[in-house]
Amino acid sequence: MIDTDAVVIGAGPVGLFQLFQLGLLGIKAEIIDVLPEAGGQCVALYPDKPIYDIPGIAVCTGRELAQQLLTQAQPFMPTDRFGAPARNLHLGHLVTELTARSEGGFELRTDKGLQLRCRVIFVAAGAGAFMPRGLNLPVLDTASNVHYHLEAPLLSPPPWADQHVVISGGGDEALSAVLALAEQPDPNQRPAKLTLLHRRDQFQADPTLDARVRIMQTSGQVTLVVGMPTGAEVSDGHLDSLTVLGADGQTQSLELDHLLIRQGLSPKLGPLTQWGMALDRKQVAVSASSFESSIAGIYAVGDINTYPGKKRLLLCGFHEATLAAHHAAASLNPDAPQHLLYTTTSPLLHQRLGLI
To answer: CATH class for domain 2-131+266-352?
Structure first.
């Protein structure tokens, strides 16, 4: 059980900024995200597309914005002396249970058994928890060699080194994965064989990615299999092959060592709908002054919330995170004076930021 002041659910831009604002106010926080990498939909959906409406930044990509926010929050994301990932950043975890404690505060549990006890919660889950789209073959859930994400950074050596890897999908995510595996600088980390499986011989991807993968297909570096997977052979928790139905109505068995499913992400509210918060069209209804939900101590910021005049913009999410943090600080420390401090001049904030 991890004891902390606050838990932030969602490590996208608004969640990362929420952690920063809490840290400035002296509130210790843990942050959780279902994705394997911080940055939310900015990194998962459009990591390389430009963003033009961040104050003071003329243009940046989603990945660059996430990295800047991680750097900004670094004083409140402790690492060990070896520079390991922040101990209070829990990636690849879906919050499945949330219960109120009789003595105040909350307890949370994730799908991987992580347990946290806190006084306040900030839901910064965007459109919901982004879950990878699968192949609608439940038997794959039992297979250890089915993957949905490339490890970042890649394990050394990765599990698929010198193996036959099948990548399922025809969008940017799938084609980027093909290039990432095929162009590994170390040949000992590349698959022995790489197959791209898609329902048709036409991709829905960036033209540059499309062209590069087509060149690899022509040179024999990548094999394209066109068809729909309709079945799978799994033995002892290992996927041995997929049954693929082609456009001609014929089926073939596609043997493999590893399957990487890259068919995009789908946002789902999931367990959040069972936590008792008032919802309005799949968004958490909040107060426009505090961004507190119908449950005292649970705040919602960013695209997950709704209130009169709400605009689903990153800029608005940063504003909401700031006001929510200040409201929570006042409720956690009702007897403390609530002076507004400025990072430019405050020695206390400089100390918290590690500047002195």
So the answer is: alpha beta
